[in-house]
């Protein structure tokens, strides 16, 4: 193989390192910076780069890689908005009186749950269910607050792979925590 020809993986990593932040910020711009849509921004950014990996051969020949990434991100954001609005299309508006009374009930329920659930034990239980590598990512990113570039070097993977793993780890932790809480509530109700 010719040493001057860059491998697909090297080319992909170069694209990720060069454009990841720009694409992420573009997705934030498309969502008008709405913090409630951060999950959508993260997901669409990741999906953009996953699509880039699938289309890497096409991108090698593309005259405007950044433009291609922006168009892909815009399409993914638009699809996400479409799904979001379709999902919420049939949402029912609840009168304020009902909201106030249900809020009181929910606050009381939350207080009971808070009193009953040992958060530290829950955290330990959730972290026990992570694989060793996932636990290390958790410690590096959430506890020690290491920069993504430093984590990429430590784990010998690309920056984009770090972002993907962090995103997947967040989802897994949420899923495990919800399952643990539901099991606990089921036992005590």
Automatic annotation (TrEMBL):
InterPro entries per the UniProt record, alphabetical: RNA_pol_sigma-70-like, RNA_pol_sigma-70_dom, RNA_pol_sigma70_r2, RNA_pol_sigma_r2, RNA_pol_sigma_r3/r4-like
Listed Pfam families: Sigma70_r2
SUPFAM superfamilies the record matches: Sigma2 domain of RNA polymerase sigma factors, Sigma3 and sigma4 domains of RNA polymerase sigma factors
GO MF annotation: an example: DNA binding
GO biological process: DNA-templated transcription initiation
Domain RNA polymerase sigma-70 region: 21-83
UniProt keywords, alphabetically: DNA-binding, Sigma factor, Transcription, Transcription regulation
Family annotation (NCBIfam families): sigma70-ECF (TIGR02937)
Family stated for the protein in its record: Belongs to the sigma-70 factor family. ECF subfamily.
Name the UniProt record assigns to this protein: RNA polymerase sigma-70 factor, ECF subfamily
Organism this protein belongs to: Sporanaerobacter acetigenes DSM 13106
